[in-house]
């Protein structure tokens, strides 16, 4: 069975292979390309001059999809190339990353250990047990808990201890870390996504001015930004809606990841220091907290375009797109990247309505 395909990189839906892709084995996990669709009713409701589009990365397929599936193709590619038989990953209680990693492990025949961090305080049983957690159990992951949700380094140390125990038991573990890594392989999935998006835009004769996405670990943001610049699209702004931390912390984080990604693909310096844009007005009360702008975006997306946005990530990113359009009334097309997150809606339950 050919689970790691280098041939997957030979032609990415018509995009010629670039040299760097040969260096990174890639597991076949995502349904690609994802659709690029207009949002005419949202455009009309906002009175926007610019055409609005959504890049449907919620439709990457695996275990309800989302942006992490693109990222996991590169981590799992490396894991399989190393002969790993157990995947370990750490994340928040309602982490979509952890859920899709459990799905990837199941699909590729690896055992999976997930470490769940208590990142959002004062949560109820629904939050702890439904949504992504329910799906991780269904996908057969071994679940561990880590009490301190804001200690990235501690969480990584704890997952390393679990990996060491697996190794001692004769397994070959592969760990996906949470904290900033010198090799953010997952961002390569968004370098590829940038190429995919621009090929679609060209075929649709579309003039993209702005790409708006959620900026959390910054892997998605950095990958898209480096991808666009490496392809020579210098005039497209990438706007990150902060979902995890304030702009003064997020912008330097994005830039650090950008430098790592540039190194991975041999494109040092394609992004300039002042090319990182984040908006933290959409962060509201912090990670996982629903803000008025979150609820507005969630409702507009659902009722105008039939898009299901989650309150932690994708609704905050759409809120950033809405804020950008209202403030700047751009002329060139705005592309909102829907990064998924559907299952956590069920963990929030009626809280999404403020009840
Ligand atoms: C993880 C996640 C993000 C943020 O992506 P990063 O690469 O961590 O910045 C956005 N949306 C959803 C639904 C996610 O699960």
Describe the structure.
42% of the residues lie in helices and 16% in strands. A six-stranded mixed β-sheet has the order 3-4-12-9-10-11. It has a four-stranded parallel β-sheet with strand order 7-6-5-8, with helices on both faces. A two-stranded antiparallel ribbon has the order 1-2. Helix 9 (247-265) links the parallel strand 10 and strand 11 (277-279). By secondary structure, it is α/β, with parallel strands linked by helices. The chain has two domains: 4-66 and 184-353, 3-Layer(aba) Sandwich (Rossmann fold); 68-176, Rossmann fold (3-Layer(aba) Sandwich). Helix 3 runs parallel beside helix 5 (132-138). The termini are far apart. The radius of gyration is 19 Å and the shape is globular. The protein is built from twelve helices and twelve strands. The protein has helices at residues 40-46, 67-81, 96-108, 125-129, 132-138, 152-168, 187-203, 219-230, 247-265, 292-305, 314-328, 342-348; strands at 11-12, 15-16, 36-38, 52-55, 86-92, 111-117, 142-146, 173-176, 208-215, 237-242, 277-279, 333-337. The structure holds pyridoxal-5'-phosphate (PLP). The site of pyridoxal-5'-phosphate has 19 residues, from helix 2, helix 3, strand 9 and helix 8. Pyridoxal-5'-phosphate binds next to helix 2, helix 3, strand 9 and helix 8.
Domain tally: 2
| CATH architecture annotation name of the largest domain | 3-Layer(aba) Sandwich
Flag low-confidence runs.
Answer: 10-16
**Bound small molecules, which ones?**
pyridoxal-5'-phosphate
**Regarding CATH, which class of the largest domain?**
Alpha Beta
Query: Within the largest sheet, what's the order of strands?
Result: 3-4-12-9-10-11
Estimate the mean pLDDT confidence.
Answer: 93
Could you estimate the helical fraction of the residues in percent? 40-55%
Main beta sheet strand tally, sense and closure: 6 strands, mixed
Strand content: 15-25%
How are helices and strands ordered from N to C?
EEEHEHEHEHHEHEHEHEHEHHEH
Give the helix/strand class.
alpha/beta
Q: Count up the helices.
A: 12
CATH topology of the largest domain: Rossmann fold
The count of DSSP E runs of length 2 or more, i.e. the number of strands, is 12
Cα Rg:
19 Å
Q: Which outline best applies? A: globular
Cα separation of the termini: 50 Å
């Amino acid at each position: 069975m050919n689970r790691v395909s280098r041939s997957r990189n030979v032609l990415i839906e018509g995009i010629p292979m670039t040299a760097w892709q040969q260096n990174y084995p890639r597991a076949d996990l995502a349904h690609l390309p994802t659709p690029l669709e207009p949002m005419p009713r949202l455009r009309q409701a906002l009175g926007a001059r610019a055409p609005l589009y959504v890049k449907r990365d919620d439709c990457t397929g695996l275990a309800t999809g989302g942006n992490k599936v693109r990222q996991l193709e590169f981590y799992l590619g490396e894991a399989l190339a190393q002969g790993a038989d157990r995947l370990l990953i750490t994340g928040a209680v309602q982490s979509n990353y952890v859920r899709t990693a459990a799905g990837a492990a199941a699909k590729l025949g690896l055992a999976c250990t997930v470490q769940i961090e208590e990142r959002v305080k004062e949560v109820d049983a629904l939050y702890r047990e439904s949504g992504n957690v329910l799906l991780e159990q269904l996908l057969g992951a071994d679940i561990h808990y880590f009490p301190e949700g804001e200690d990235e380094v501690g969480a990584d140390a704890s997952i390393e201890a679990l990996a060491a125990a697996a190794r001692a038991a004769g397994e070959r573990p592969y760990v996906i870390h949470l904290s900033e890594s010198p090799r953010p392989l997952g961002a390569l999935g968004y370098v590829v996504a940038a190429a995919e998006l621009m090929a679609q835009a060209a075929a649709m004769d579309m003039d993209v001015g702005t790409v708006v996405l959620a900026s959390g670990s910054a892997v998605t943001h950095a990958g898209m930004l480096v991808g666009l610049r490496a392809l020579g699209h210098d005039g497209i702004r990438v706007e990150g809606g902060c979902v995890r931390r304030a702009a003064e912390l997020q912008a330097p984080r994005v830039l650090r990841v950008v430098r790592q990604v540039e190194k991975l693909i041999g494109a040092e310096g394609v992004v300039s220091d002042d090319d990182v844009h984040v908006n933290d007005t959409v962060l509201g009360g912090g990670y996982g907290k629903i803000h008025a702008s979150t609820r507005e975006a969630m409702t507009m997306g659902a009722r105008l375009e039939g898009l299901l946005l989650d309150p932690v990530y994708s609704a905050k990113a759409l809120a950033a797109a809405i804020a950008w359009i209202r403030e700047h009334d751009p002329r060139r097309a705005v592309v909102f990247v829907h990064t998924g997150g559907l299952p956590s809606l069920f963990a929030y339950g009626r809280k999404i309505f403020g009840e």
